[in-house]
Structure formats: C-alpha cells, structure tokens
User: Fold these one by one.
Assistant:
Number 1:
Amino acid sequence: MSSLGILLVAVLAAAPAAQAGSSSPGPTFAKDIAPIVWKNCTSCHRPGEVGPFPLLTYEDVSKRADFVAEISASRRMPPWKAEPNYGKFHDERRLTDAEIATLQAWAKNGAPEGDAKDLPAPPKFVEGWQLGEPDLILEMPEAFTVPADGRDVYRCFVIPIPTIGARTVAAAEFRPGNRRVVHHAILYLDANGEARKKDAADAGPGYASFGGPGVLPTGGLGGWAPGAMPRKLPEGTGKFLRAGSDLVLQMHYHPSGKAETDRSSVGIYFTKKPATTLVGGLAVMNHRIYIPAGENKYETTAQSEKLPVDVNVLGLGPHMHLLGRSMKVFAETPEGKTIPLVWIKDWDFNWQGSYAFVEPVRLPKGSVIKLEATYDNSPDNPHNPSSPPKPVSWGEQTTDEMCLLSVQVTTDSTADLREVVLMRSARLGGALAGGVQSRDLDAGDLAASGAKGATGGKSAKGNDELVDALIDGILDRGFDIQPKHKELLKPFDKNEDQRVSRAEFDAMPAGVKFVIRQAIRSRVDAAVNPKKP
C-alpha cells in the first residue's frame, strides 16, 4: 500500500474517536431555547394576546433570534422590574444570567433547531376564567374604541356592583376583552358616587384619567398586567366590599396600528363563608416632592409611622410617573434589623404593577416602612413629558409626579386591624391596597360579614361625621398657606394671596385635595377622638 493510502486509512480510523471525544454542540431550540421561551414569553406572545408577534414555534423564534438575545440581555423583556434577592414574589418573569447566555450563544451560532425529539411538551393555556366560573361577572357598560395610533390611552369605566349588604371577596379576575390593545388594568372601588359624576361629565364611554381614578377610592380589588395570574387570598381572608360600591376599572390601552374595540370584564369570587381576617392597607408617600427643571438625579425619601401592632405584608404597589427612575423599599424593626421588601432600579411607568409575596412578610410592632426614590427631570430622559423640562410637583396629571407606595397587610385580629386603619396613612393605603376603611370596621354590616372582633351596632361613626363636618367648615372659610407647603400649593393659589379658598381647593387634583384633608383631619381628629392614656 502506498504511503498516501496508509495515511488515509489512519485518518478514517481516527475520525470516530475524535468525534466521540469532542465537546457537545451548542444550544438548540428543541433542547435549550424552547423551555426558556415557552416559560417566560409565550403567555403574551401568542395569537390573540398583547405581544406584537408570536413566539411559539422554531420558525417564530429563529427569525428573531438576534432580537430576542438583545432584548433579553438588556432585561427589557420579559417585563419584570423587581431586583432579584430582594423579596420573593409570585409571577416572577426574570431570566437567569445562564438563560440569557444561552439565548445569546444560540443566536450567535446561527439559531440551530436541533432534534425534535428533544422538545418538551408544548405549553397549554387555560381558556376562559382561570379561577373557574366567578360568583359575579362585571362587564364594561359599552365597548370603547381605541384609536389606531397616537399616545397610550388611560380611561376609567364605572360599573355598579349589585350586592345585597356587605360581602368579603377572595379574588377578582380581570379578563381583557381585546388583548391586542389592553396593556394593564387597575380595579378601584368607589362607594361615594364620585366616579359616576366624572363619568357623567365625559361625553364618551367612561372618563379620561392618567395617574389614578381621579377620585379618592374607598377600596380596591387588585389589578392585571400581561403574565400575571389571578389567585385567591388564603382561606378565611378577604377584602371588604361595602354595599352600594361601584367598580372603577382604570384601563391602560396601547394602540395596535388599527382601530380596535374593547369591552373587558371582571369576575368576582366571594369567600365561601364571611372572612374572619380582613385585608388592610397603608400608604407611604412624600407629597412634598419638588423636582427642579433639568435635575437628572433628584433623590427623596418617605417613611410610615411606627406600626402599632404586628402585621403581615401580603404585597406592595410602588407608584411614580414618567420621571421616576428607581424606588427601594425596606422595613426597619425596633431592634434595627433591615427587612428588604422590593427594589426597582429601572422604573418604567408602562410596566408598573403590584408585587405579591410568595409568603407574607412579618413585620413586628414598632417597625417603620421606608422608601428611597430617584427622578430624572432632565432633557436626556426620553420619557419626560415636558420639553423643555419644567419644575414638577405632586399631582395626578401626565406632567405631575408622585412618590407613593401602597402596602397590603393583615393582622392577627380585627382589634389589631383597627389600630392599623387609625394610622394617618391608612385611609389612602386602604383605598389603594383594597383594605377596609375605618368607617367600615365598626359598622353593623361588618359584624354581619363575620370578621373576628367586629363589634357592630353603634360606633365612632358619629365622631367621624363630626370630623368631616369640621374639615368642610375649615375649607369653606379657606386657610393660610404655611411656608412648608408653599411650593406644593403655589400652582393652585390663583390670586396669589397666600391663602387657599374653597374654589381653589375644589379645582385641585384629587391627590392634592386628599393630602390637605388628611393634614387637617389629623389635627381635628386628635381633638374630637382623643386617645385614651
């Protein structure tokens, strides 16, 4: 045999051994990419959902391999803003560093499909109501038309809730009528008829409202964003629903490129028996924010009062507007221990949401909930609604800002809950977090609902009405603007007399009016309802 033939035989003989000893091939769609995409992306990126294109098949994903790798590496998608290892939440849509590296390697290697035998079972999606047939279905009174293009639309729809007497709610499930345009929804309650007045004053279905519902809610039932799953509260726990309440459904619509209509609905699931543990709420806020024009890192803080009793934190709802950049929330115990709650380093108003803890976080009596927030009011902020930038203070409009956190809690007894709802921040907190209000805790219908420790019968309601009457009297007469409130109230002092008249007060946004009422209430209430020594 020639020397060439001997060399050829040697090479062929060595080939299998070399192949057997080589490293495994790079990631493939079937084995590595499909599990990542189906777990984190497909719930929104499938036909009929809010995602602008499907990510179901190899063909869907492979032609966007570079885009998927880039947008996941930047963590713009999946849309989960809470930092890892700083609170553990339901519905986390966060990719691990290893998953991001796998997506990048797959795209770099040409997005190979791999062996179909390696594919996991395809995802299955429950059609219809995720929690089963609701006890009560509430639907928007009429369809709303979302324009083909332009800015996102924020609109509230008022839906009467037909109940006889007070009830306790285990869950509320939002069902988008048109997932192509529904970006997110928040479910407020209004038992005072204020939202109906705003609805009647607006010519179209519902009424326009950006930052909140435009009224002070009397409770809430939660919210919805793509990827969030409804879940019931623990057995025996419920949210209090006052008789005669309206559901105020605040919708955020994102135009799809063509005119669309939506008529979304909400399913209500009542507790099987009257809840013995009621949900309460707190608010942590700084309404004195004043962000100078051009400031690219305005920093501020806020904190709660000391908790009067032990509480279990079920969830949190951070809230800022378009200038917000970050919010860090934590609790400090009387012993000086820091308990992390939630940290958002890259705030995005369009992806704000609530964060429900997998396990309630226990905070002992005397703890304080704190937040640290930053804002960017510079021309470099692409979300800045003002060009050129202008000074910004607290308010509900697109060009205003907020520094606000709602906290959903339960306590060990209704007596303890009563201590919580008497805190200064509990009225707004209860409205935002779906917590019971002070007027409801002692009402006869609450006793009928079954809450443990509820007294029923005659209560402090008479004193509450006296406090409200005194507040209205002060507002009718007008009041001087204190130096510490000058920047906050300056835009509303139309005649520049350093006083706020009743007409000027009535023209203020609901959020500012609430802050003023609370400031007056804290002083009046101390005189009318003195605490026992």
Note: The CA atoms of residues 137 and 267 lie 5 Å apart.
Number 2:
Amino acid sequence: MIGGNICGFGLFTKLMNEPQVCPMTVQSSPPGSHILATERSYGRSTPALPRGGAKRLVVVSNRVADLSSSTQTGGLAVGLADAINDEGGLWFGWDGNREGKTGGPLKISQHGAVTSVGVPISPDDFADYYLGFSNSVLWPLFHYRLDLVNITAKAFDGYMRVNEIFARQLMPLLRRDDLIWIHDYHLIPLASMLRKLGCRQKIGHFLHIPFPAPELLAAAPHHRELVDALLDYDLLGFQTHTDAGNLKSYLAAQRPDVKVTKDHILTSDKTIRVNRFPIGIDVEDFNALAREPGTDAACLQNSRVYNRRKRIIGVDRLDYSKGLPERFRAFDAFLQRYPQFTKKVGFVQVAPPSRSEVDAYADIRVELEQLTGSINGRFGDLDWTPVQFICRALPRDTLAPLMRQSDVGFVTPLRDGMNLVAKEYVAAQDPENPGVLILSQFAGAAEEMREALIVNPYDPEDMAQQLHRALSMPLKERRARHGALLAHITRFDAKNWAETFLSALKAPVSDNNTRVPADAREPAEAT
C-alpha cells in the first residue's frame, strides 16, 4: 500500500551533495504492494547515508526542527541536533503548513549529513489529529486534567488516520538497519502502523510530557489502543520514574498477559525496555547567552528602579498545566503576608500564547489579565507596578539575561513532563551571586533538582512562604544550592540525554548497562 516516488530514489544521491527541495507523492496502492515498495526502500540510493557505516538515525516528531539554523531552541531540537548531525540521518515530521493535503507531496531538503522531510496536513486533519485528539484529549489527560478532556470519535479517527498516512510516507525512506526514534504524544501509534507495513527496525519512543496515573488513563475510551501501540516499540523512554511507573502499574492492572519487571515489559512475542531519560539543556550555550544582555534587559539592569528592587521571574507558555493563576495568587498572598516587601520586589511573568483555538487557553489569558489588574490595583503605586504580565514571546537573547538578573525563578506547574525553564534559570545565574529556584513538586525536574525550594503549586500559602525564604536567603546558602544544581544539569545535559537514549536503543535487550546513571537521582522531597 506504499505508492511510487515520482522523484525517484536515485535523487537522494544528489541530495547528499547539495541543498534543495524535492516534492514527492505517496499514493495508495493495491493490497500487498507495500511489500515490494518496502524492499525498494532498502536500495543503494536512500537518503542521507550515515558516516562511517554506522546505523542511520531517523527522528520522527510532530514538527521538523529548522536544521538550517546554526542554533537550536527547545529541548527536542537541542538534544537531537548533535546526535543526528554526528551520525547522519533523517528528520521526518509535519511541515507546519495547516493548509496542505494530508498524504500530499513531501518537502525534502538536505542539511549536511541530515535529510529533512516535511509532510503536509489538511485543515480537517489538523483539526482532528492536532487540535482534536492530541491537544483536546491526550494533552489534558496526560496532565491530569480529566475535566478538560473533550472526546469525540471523529478526533480519534483523525489521529489514527494521520499516523497511518505518516507511516506510509515514511516507510519508503527507511533503510534496513535504521534506528528510529519517535517523539511525544502526537505519534504514539506510529510504530504500530510501521510494523503493519513490515518495518522490523528498532524503534524507540520518548514521551516529553507526563504519563498519567493508571486510573486516569483508564478513563479514556481508547486507552487500550494507545497502550497496545506502545508495546510495538523496542524502547520506551519517560522523563521520570513516576511516569515509567505509571505505565507499568497500568499494565499490571489491565494486562495480566504482560509481565513487568524493573526495566522491561515482556509480551508473548517480544521484550520492551522501559526507563527514564530526563531531558537536559545546552548549559554552556544558555549561560553564554545570559552573560550578553540584550537591549531590553540592559535597560532594566541599568535603571535606578531595577537596582533597588528584587525581581521574581516566571517564563511559561500560556497553558493551564503551568499553574499560572495559582502562581499569581501566591504572589498576592506574599504581598499580603509580608508587607515589608512593598515596593521592594516585582514579579515578571512572560507567557506567550499557544493553541489559541482551544477555548481553555483563551479563558486562562482572561483570568490572568484580571488577576494582574487586581494585584496592581490593590498594591501598586505611581512608582511601583507589582506584576508585569507579558503575553507574547520574547527572544532568547532577552530572556536569558532577564533570568540572570532575577533573584527568584518561579517555576510552579501543576504538572509537567520536565520543565526546562527550571534548568535554564539555573544555567543563567552568576555563580558568585545566584538567584534561587522555586520549583513545583509536580514538575519532572523536581526528581533531579533537589536543591531547589520544592513547593506545592496548589497551596498559595506554601508558595508565599517559599518566596519569602528565597528573597531572604543568605548568599552562602544560595551559592551552595546553585552550585549543586549547576553541576547536575551540566553533567546531565541535552547531549547526555540523546546519547543515553540511543545507547539503550542500540543495545541488545539483555544488556543492562544502558540504564540512566544512579547519579541522575531519585524523586525529590520538599526542601
């Protein structure tokens, strides 16, 4: 059922040597024809041959990274850029165009040893696959917001259909010895779709967001199909021990035919390795960015008002999982409880909008604007605006120095897979005079970042007390906490994350030497 490539596979030899875009069409074929197409895809002239005869890495994500950029942003792009450039490979994903035709021509370009393949999606499929099932079912469900789940049969059908079409478009591009690394909740069924087409390569999946508790997952009508799809992978990676444990607990309760051990899931016909692989950042790069203040940050740093006031900073997408209303209420409680900080501290919250088509996201912006007005109206003065709410994206060369100049990093999601802002805040600090990180106990980063002040994001009084503690903390304690945090995120950075996952994917199932090092730490307790 894989159609012909109108460009011809021989063109990929040319793509190895010069950047260009080549449209391809994948069409439906009679049943059984995918076997011949699969064999053709293993021919000599496949895309982006790996260097030195090593296995080629094939990355599949909802969006393809901008490989033409000399610098990457975001945990996925930063973590994989070095790995895929070093080994050579292919990056496959949606091209970002909402007005395309699902299954239509691919956009293929070459960037050094890496082939980028962008796939189009139609407006209807974008609504069902992306806005519908991915972000109106899986996102709230996996973030423990069952009350926001909007289940429709049409959205689930669209989700499965788009994953099947992606599989049909990817299959002809694969080589027999490729390593395939699929990312996140948008593409959970993709391995199953590939297996049905005859794919026998090793396939790993990494979930960037939390994996829900078994009783929550079981509330979703299609939970069995989703978990069955996960069992078609060779390696399942999660951000935390809790997430990996939730999957194993679900299997123990719902699938008596499956055996679960500490690091493996055993089905009737295969063994799947499962582990935690906490994602990191490029610490050196972010620290260098923080030490070069942009124009906006420099103006704030040099102002007389800035020099006599402390700053609390929050940086998050405008999302209900980030606990932003709770954070604003905690700052309100702080100002009420500790009036000695009147006119001595300001709270800056940067929250660029996301998924504005979903009602829940529009509602949270209105709520935050009302909270901002309420706090500023009750506590502000002509020379003091307690809350600055910036509802737009700021460039990284502005955000990084702002973090460095802020006394407290306020990172309090209600639930988060990892939260790289916490690690960026630590990386941005001046080791001689660092700020203090306040971190939600429900962020994945809390398993590692024990020297942060760990808080309950549902308890505004707890957060208010920890704000006071952070703003009053002696320099010696701030240095000690920051030094330990910095050492940890430097060791377990983005490159380490990619290398550790790929090492586990390449290793034989019987090889137990690919676990995350013990120093990656167990879950943290409140400090």
Note: The first strand starts at residue 57 and ends at 63.
Number 3:
Amino acid sequence: MAADDRRLDVLVVGAGLSGLYLLWLLRRRGLAVEVVDKAPSVGGTWWWNRYPGLRCDVESMTFSYSWDADLEQEWSWPERYSKQSEILRYLRHVAERHDLMRDIRLETEVTAAAWDPADEAWHVETSRGPRSARFLVMATGCLSVPNLVAFEGLGDFRGDWHHTAFWPEDGVDLTGQRVAVVGTGSSAIGAIPEIARQAAHLTVFQRTANFSIPAWNAPISPAQEADRKARYPETRALARTGATGDIWPLAPGKARDLTPEEREAELERRWHQGSFSFLSAFADMTTDPEANRIAVDFVHRKIKAIVKDPATAELLCPKDHPLGTKRLCVDHGYYETFNRPNVDLVDVSAAPIERITADGIVAHGTEHPVDVIVFATGFDGMTGALMAVDIEGRDGRRLRDEWAEGPHSYLGLMVHGYPNLFTLTGPGSPSVLANMMTTIEHHAELCDQAIGHCTDLGATTLEPTAEAQAAWDEEVQRAAYATLYPQAASWYMGANIPGKPRVFLPYIGGVGTYIRTCDAVVAEGWRGFELSGPPALQRR
C-alpha cells in the first residue's frame, strides 16, 4: 500500500475492541477515519494472545458489545467463559457485519507522532508511510507490550522457546516434550493445565504465588441464554453503575458486621460462583486488612484441600500481598494440575533462575532439563504501548520524557500539552480494574463525544488544562492509597518492569463513580478542558 497523503479527521491506532467500536461511532459523524494496526488481523489482544488454555476471565455474555442490539440476540456464546478463538471469531464478525474493514489498514505499525501547531494536526510515521490527522486516538490496549526478561544463556538454549504473548498462529505441538513454564500470573495459570495435559513433563518456575479462583466453566444452556438475552438492557445498565463494570451481586456487608458463620458461608458461596465475584464477598475486602486476612485464610484452606502434596500446596499459597491487590486470576483446574505425576513446581522466590543452558534451566544450582521453554512473564502494563511510540506534543515535549516518573493525564483520556490526542483506557482510567468491555465502550463513547464537541463548535483543538490534570493525578493516587492495593508489588504499580516508577496506574474509585464524574465534566461544558479555534470560543 502506498503512502496516503489524504488528511484524515481521525487516525485510530489499534483495531481491537476499542478501535472497532470507535470507528463505528465516528463514522456516524461523517468524519474521515482510519484505523491502523500492526497485526495482520483485527482483534487486538485477542489476536496476539493465543496460548493454550486462553479464555476470557469475564463471562461471555458480559464480555460482548452492547451497542448492537440485534447482534446481542443473534450471537450465541457456547460457554460461560469463551476461548480466545471464539472471541476472535466474534470480533471478525463485527468488523464484517458493519463493513469496518474498508477503513482499517492492517500490518501497519505506528512508530512516531508529532503535533504540528501550524497545521493543527498530528503527523504520524508508520511502517507504510506518513499519515496526517486532526485527531489521534491511541487505542493500543493496556496489556499489549510483553515483558521480555533477558535471562542469561537464552541464546545457548538448543530447544524452542515461546512467550505466551507471541504464541505461533499455527500452535505448538508439546506432545511428549519436557516443558518449562516461567511465571505464574494470569497467562501461566491459564496455560499450565492445558500444557500439562500435552507434555511428557512440565516444570513450573514460580517467583510469586498468585491468588486464583475457579471459573467453573460450563456450556451455556438454551434456557440460560434466553434468560440473559431477555435481561440485556437491565444487565448492561447495571454494569455501568457498579464498581467493577460487571454484574456480580453486591456484598452483604463489611466483614466485621458479619458473624464468623456468615463470613464463611458468603466466601463459600462466592467460591462456587467463581471468578471476580469473590472480591465482592465483603464490602471492605480490599480496604480492611482484617477482612482481607479472613478471605486469604479461606483461599489458603481451599488450596491445601485441593493440592495433595503439603509442601507444594504451601508454595502455592500467596503470602506476600493481600488478596485482590494483584490481578485476581480465574482458572480452569490450575491447582488440581499440581496433583499430576508429570508436574513439578520450582520455587524461585528467594533465589531467582540463575541461567539457561543449552539443555535446560538452572535454579538453586540444579539444572532442570527441558525441550521447550514457555515464558509467561507478563506485560508492561498500561503505559508500555503508549511509550513505545515516540509521541511529541507542543513545544517539542515528549511523552516518554514527561512520563519518566509516572504517567499524567486527565480522566485517563487526554494529556496536557498534547492537543487532540486521546489515550483510550489509558492510565488514570478504571480499565484493567474492571470488565474491560464496559470501560472500553464508555471511553470510546467519551472520545466520540469530545471529538463531536470540537467539530460541532468549529474548534480546532481540545486539551486538558494543567490544573485539571494535576487534580486528577492526585485523585487517582488518593483513591489507590485508601485501599490495600499499593501494598502489592504488582503491575498495577509498575513493579514488574525494572526501572519503571512505582505509581498506581489505574483509577480505583469504581466504574460507576468514574462514569458519573465524566458525565459531570461533560454537563459542565467539558470542565477542565480548553478549546481553541474561533475567537468566540472561551476556556472551558
């Protein structure tokens, strides 16, 4: 494809969940919009990630678009928690159904973007030539830049190695192989049970034990499907009013207000409900250390009841962070996998992996022979994809430099000094602390409203004020430190990336609170933003 010199109204980077919806929204305004993505397919994270066992950790009928009522009724999700392949099929269908592909340019990587004050536009460098657009929207995802740990000796390894975020499209045959999985976060917890069923032997290297709650996945019956489809308007509205963007029932009260028997019964009920419902067992689960300890003790007992070897069970019990303060994992037989005779757990918390040799991995002075290594070492969360692009704003300022000590934004949506630049589900928004489908849809709609506000008024630029941004940055940290979350060395804090500043990245005040805040901002004439253009426009 030759470089296109056509001036766009909006260039969207990323053809995942948010990019597809935003394209649909902006088209209705009659704007010239283009979406670019470096992948060869739409789907975003659901194209890049395809490791064995990958499923969404939010229920299928909640993790689906709400903006196409006919599609809601027509599409049938086969299971409570969908496989990656089913979600990708769904997103490709959406793109085809709404003829979105004609405005999407795949295999096009954005490397740099610079604001031109004379042209009042973003000039963007891509692998397929330059582009120019009045508005630039970074819909690049919160978990899209893998954390590739530089292990000593990896180049000497004679076997194959893979990262869960770059799994080959045609799969990997692990039958009869000796496999190592490095990491025990969400990706590993999803992959380990499936890999164990294929491999001759699996060795899991664990630095940090993580809390995981069973999904209890099962086929969706016709009756369940019909009931949920009949209640879509109700459940979609409910998802936008609560804290998590989901529809789990609210907690019955604070732990201290319940008897020990009531607490145990509620935890048991939530365990068998599965998934993130567990975090709503008590209203003070993530704010009161004693309430959290009660839940931790319960999960520890569950782990020890499932895992037969006491020493292995003890290693699998997280002890270095409160429950929920690292992203809770949702599993499909994870703990049961360690009862298999072909699975070993190696603890590398006190002494990390020393090196990789031609034939295996050395830890604690012992070489573990393996044929294949699977790295499940996570992502550079929330800021990684934004800082991977060289973004230059007003007066030569660079986002990489200004975010060197931590990100700054207003509502997680825009950044002072970078006019007409939007960061969908960016740092400072609820995003990863909630059902991403709910937060993505809301942010895409907010972005669409902002662009519509500019075009309707004839304004040329929209930008948050420095004061509004500073106040929101303060609110994001205030909300975080009112909870137990900062006690964990999590990727929410940037702790998994060497040298990354320890700043709490998402907004933890709740999806409902956040949406009401944004609604008030819009109702008050886009409070905290300033417009430029015709002389009649005044600072908002």
Note: The longest strand covers residues 129-138.
Number 4:
Amino acid sequence: MNVLFISIDSLRRDVLGAYPDAPTIFDYEVETPNLDRFAKRALVFDSHYAGSLPCMPTRREWLTGTQEFLWRPWGPIEPFDTTLPLAARSNGTLTQLITDHYHYFQHGSNGYYEDFHGFEFVRGHEYDAYETVPKEPDEWLLSQVVNESPKESDDIALTEFTAGTNPTDLRFMNRAQYVRNAKSFEAEEDFFAPRVFSNTAEWLRENQEWDEWLLYVDSFDVHEPFHNPEPYASMYTDEDPRDPEHTVWPFYGRTDAGQSELTDRELDFVRSQFAGNVTMADRWFGKVLAVMDEENLWEDTMVIVTSDHGFFLGEYGWIGKPGRVPMYNALAHTPLLIWHPDAPRMGERVSALTAAVDLYATILEALDVDDTSRGHSNSLFPLIQGEVSHIRDWALYGYWGSSVNVTDGEYTYLRPCRSDYSTGCYSTTMMNPYGWFTPQRPKEDATSGRFLPYSDAPVWRFEGPSVQRHETPLLFDVQDDPNQSTDLSESARELSRDKRDLLEKALTEIQAPAEQFERLGL
C-alpha cells in the first residue's frame, strides 16, 4: 500500500464543503471544489482534534506518535524518536517529503527531514532565510506585511533576538524577508501552493516504478502571510488588494487593541485574503487529484488530508494564534479526510473522537510496519474498517507551558495554569522554551535524568515560565453549542467536576509530569 499524506497548514474546517455545519465567520462560500470532491470519495472525520500546537509540535506528533506538549515545546526530533520515514525505510518503503514549510530547516527544528530518501524544499515562505536583495524591498508589499511599528506582541515565539519592522534590521525573523523572497512573483505558478502541489503531481507521475512509497506533502499555505495573485486576491473582496493601508499579515492578538488592532474593514480584507489563499491551494490540490485519476493510483494508495490547527479570524475578538487566548475549537478542531481503497466505509462520516497523534500509528499500519512502538498514537484503522465505533475516550491538546485542555467529543474542558508556577522542559537538547526560532542558549540550571515515561534515555530538565490564557476553567457543550459561546463551568458544576476528573484521568494515563498537576491546580 502506498500512502500520500497531505497537510495544509492552518486550514479551517469552516471553509470546506465537507463541514457544512462548522461554525463560520464567513458570510460567503469559500470555493474548495477539489477538496470537496475528495471528501465525497473519502471518509470524513467529524470530531478530530489537534494535540500539541502549533506547527512543529504537531509534526512531531504526526511523525513520531509523541504527544509532546506536556513535556516540551517546539523543538527537534529526539534521538529516541522513531520517525515515520525511518520506520518506513527499515520496512523497504521509499519515502519522500515535498514542502515549502521552512521551519524544518530553521533553528529549533532539526531532524524532521533527514530520514526521508528524498526531499524537495520550495524556498521563500514567510521568514525563510533565502533572499538578501534588494536591501530596500518593494514598498507596497512591505507596507502590507509590516504595516506599522510594533507596540506589543502576543506571539510567544518572539524575543529580543527577533527583528523589529525596519527592513534592514539584521536580527532574526524580519518581515521584510518575505518581501525579498517574493520579489519576482508575477504569475500564479510562482506562488507557494501551486509549486508544492505541482511538484507533488510530477513526483507521482515519475515514481511509479517503486513497489511501495510514502509521500508526505506539507503545504505551508494557507498559513500567513496571505499574499495572493489574481484572481484570488480580488475573489472575495471589492477592495484594492494592493492598497498599502491593508495588511496580508496580521499581528497576533486582540482585534480591538494594540499592534494587532484591526478595523472591521481591515478584518474583512484579511478574511478575504485567507479565503483567496484557500481557493488557490484547492485549485492546485486538484492537480494532484488529476494525476491520481489519470494514473489510476486510487487502487493502491491511501490518501490522508488534514491540518495542524486553525487560525482566528476575529472570533471572540482575536486574530492569529495568540499566546493568551483560550484554546477554542477555531484552533483545535481540525479537518481530517481519509481515502483507503480497501475500506468499506468510504464516502461516509466518522463521529468518533480522534486526535492528530493517531495519524502516526495509522500510517505505520497502512505500510505494514509492526516492529516499532506506537507511542501515544492509536491507529484509526478499526474506525476506517468499521470494526469499532470509537478508539479513545479523551483527547488532550494545548501549547507547552500553558493551559491543558481535554475533550470527549461532546464537551471541551479548558483548564488554566497558574502563571506563578513554572513548567518543566524535557529534552536531550537545551532547546529554547520560547524564542524557538533563534539560536539555543545554555541552561545553566538544567539537571539531567531519566525523567520520561516513554523513553529510558536521560534528558535535560529545565524550567520556563507558564503563560496563562484564562483565569478560570471553561466548559463548553460543543454538540449543542459549537460556537462555544456559553461557558457551563459555573451553571453545570457537577458536569464541570466530571470533565475535570476526565482531565486528571487523561494526564494520569499518559503519565504526565507531576508538576503539570500542580500548575493546573489538580
């Protein structure tokens, strides 16, 4: 069996026709005909949740089966991890990565691509350290990605080592980098999703001689900046897409205050550019489906399409993935579509609770790899084959050093942390608890030991501050209240205690560090 695993970063459920009942902030239909066509063929998962957020923590879940956010933040593959490509390689399966996701090649993220037999890196997205000229970038695009001098930040990844808004600031993560990278973009084919999915289609055509393969396609679109060519830039707005007063790269935070403040007009424009980016990605995803059709690859290929997380577009007054917002479902409830040629349930829906980490065991089973640990991952095959009605009682999700959240598929319980309690970080490296994208700094107070329940390897332990997203627990009935507009934590106290108990049970079963219970007041 071949496996085509596709991630579309930041893809919200509400833009897909496969999820017509998903809460939405759009007052128009976002066109995704190709993803919708695939969903009709595939099995649609209705209760799929993220785990460790944001980008690279999710990828460690997918690629190693490790739910990491209770032990560490964004960081590298660990020496004791068995990655999907390594397990597949040892099983005689060809592996390939195609991506424009530059975080794989940035500070803090080593080890993710090295085990693939081949990889293609489409250069230039977001802060990718690619182009250095011109020194003074194009003014209109620069104004749309920088927009004004920062007054504050709700992006926990930024530190004093990251750049301000001067285009010639030589510290890390200068937004002008994107403008230099995109300086020659003219035609639609120059943009990122078109290149990633074109390369995917070409690879599928050219690699049919291999007996079995795993192709992992990681599209950084529809992640910001939402820089689009025509017709997508104007598809969902009457505004001038080149108006320098608009932004295609909003700062994270509140939409009503600070550097992230947006007027209703500005917010509508950001939404329109997000939608345009989705439609562009969908069109080029269609090129992959066309090759699957033309080469008759459906008969021996499992296809998985998912996303790592969502993106706030004004819900609850927030934009982006801010560090101090409760983990609402706009971020945590993610799409999952799976095609398998031998499964009887194709074209149906799955209501059972599933989690991002479960894709690891699922892909290993598809490739008939049976000699490696599944970690925290549960295979979805019993659901795909219609053998069971559920595979897990709970799913945990969150950011390291922040709130810890649990769902049973019917309710979400969001448990705040105490900001005066630090959080332990466990790794074989002295990774940065924050400031992930900058060089590691030595941790002089680190201790070493065999602290992990899922590995006998000694690791460093050091501490970082906790970030409080909300002051009191939040409880939502996501079946009757999918918008999570009514907090039940006070009005349904017995139910709230039950979900608190579920969180304690989940943390106990996963053998979370003792300090997690303390910092969460459990």
Note: The chain has a mean pLDDT of 95.
